[in-house]
Amino acid sequence: MSSLFPNYGRWPIRIVKGEGNYLWDEAGNPYLDFVSGIAVTSLGNVPPKVKAQVQEQLDTLWHCSNLFEIPIQEKLAEKLVSLTCGDRAFFCNSGAEANEAAIKLARRYTQKILQQNRYEIITFTQSFHGRTLATLTATGQAKVKEGFAPLPEGFTIVPYNDGEALAAAITDKTCAIMLEMVQGEGGVHPASPEFVEQIQTLCAEHNLLLIVDEVQTGIGRTGKWFAHQHYDIQPDIITMAKGLGSGFPIGAMIGKEKLAEAFGPGSHGTTFGGNPLACAAGLATLETIEEDDYLSRVNEMSAYLTGKLHELAAVHPEVVAVRGKGLLLGVELKIEAAPLVEKMRKERILLLQAGPNVLRLLPPFTIEKEEIDRAVQVLDSTLRLSAAATPSS
Ligand SMILES: *Cc1c(COP(=O)(O)O)cnc(C)c1O
């Protein structure tokens, strides 16, 4: 019997080592990694440049309270601000905490600075924003909420990509809209350009803050630094986490200058947020993406992988759609995704699902064309076998 809580539906492989685009189990079997720790290890497992900078930081300073000024934290903040339309950074340890900070900042700005009694945040169906009480309430999926009542008030969930429903849901209590530009957990659904334009208009009309949750899509995953940069918008708040530290836990919230005063001394905080080791990992990750031009590589590999997936779709009637951005790709199927994921795993290729019938592919930016070829080849034969096994509809 395990000493761990059984809260994860774990896959029956025991991972002990990672290097580049592969993970190894206890028996020494390599697995080709199209999961990247769910969009975390974007530069591959144990990326050498990040490792070197974290090792250097290990010799210098591990932890320092936010009671002090911390130069490496300021340096990472400057770097992130330079990559976005934001002006200020707050650091934490996870995506949920970054979104929690965004929710708190939106409410506090509206109530303390604008002096208005508005607090509702509109989010969307099939969204995912985290597992704290506030962020699971914001999440547009019932399964994460079961048994956790009472939930905090002040969240309204409306259909994604539906501008009319959104406009109708805004009340005199609404203070912000929070969305993912590509819904990751919810089935790899990108926001439509018309929808994003409507959001921008509605925010201006009703003086609402726009919070973009880039926890999965940020830090190059979609081929730009942030997914909202594919659209013509300027969010007030941007949250990020997964890919920021190459596997070292770190989250961040970036906000516009007008919000700074709402987070005055003592208003919000965390012990570990902006920890020097985490900041070293974050800085090294951003510098490596820049120096080695990984954004171009994401776009190149995305075009290659998407092309191969479309070829599969052309010969497999089970494939309904291929969608996504950069190296966050979804393959929607007419059949259940879980058995396919399991069969692929038996062939030592790791990929994910996003909802019951969508395969989610999140390879590291370091993925090679030959590795894509191999993965797609195995997916092709796995689909063939599945089609033979299930009666066609
Ligand atoms: C993973 C994820 C989160 C939650 O991040 P944690 O680090 O697990 O708390 C929030 N939003 C999105 C879009 C995510 O993909």
User: How is the main sheet built?
Assistant: 7 strands, mixed
CATH architecture of the domain at 70-291: 3-Layer(aba) Sandwich
Cα radius of gyration in angstroms: 21 Å
Instruction: Give the N-to-C terminal Cα separation.
Output: 42 Å
CATH H level of the domain at 70-291: which superfamily? Type I PLP-dependent aspartate aminotransferase-like (Major domain)
Count of DSSP strands: 17
Listed once per kind, the bound small molecules are: pyridoxal-5'-phosphate
CATH level-1 class of the domain at 70-291: Alpha Beta
Count of alpha/pi helices: 11
Helix content: 25-40%
Which helices and strands appear, and what pairs or packs with what?
Layout: E1 15-19, E2 22-25, E3 30-33, H1 36-39, H2 48-58, H3 71-82, E4 88-92, H4 95-113, E5 120-124, H5 133-138, E6 155-158, H6 163-169, E7 174-179, E8 182-183, E9 189-190, H7 193-206, E10 209-213, E11 237-240, E12 251-255, H8 276-291, H9 294-315, E13 319-325, E14 328-333, H10 337-346, E15 349-350, E16 352-353, E17 358-361, H11 369-389
Parallel strand pairs: 3-15, 5-6, 5-7, 7-10, 10-11
Antiparallel strand pairs: 1-2, 2-3, 4-12, 8-9, 11-12, 13-14, 14-17, 16-17
The structure holds pyridoxal-5'-phosphate.
Pyridoxal-5'-phosphate is lined by residues 94-96, 99, 128-130, 180, 184-185, 213, 215-216, 241-242.
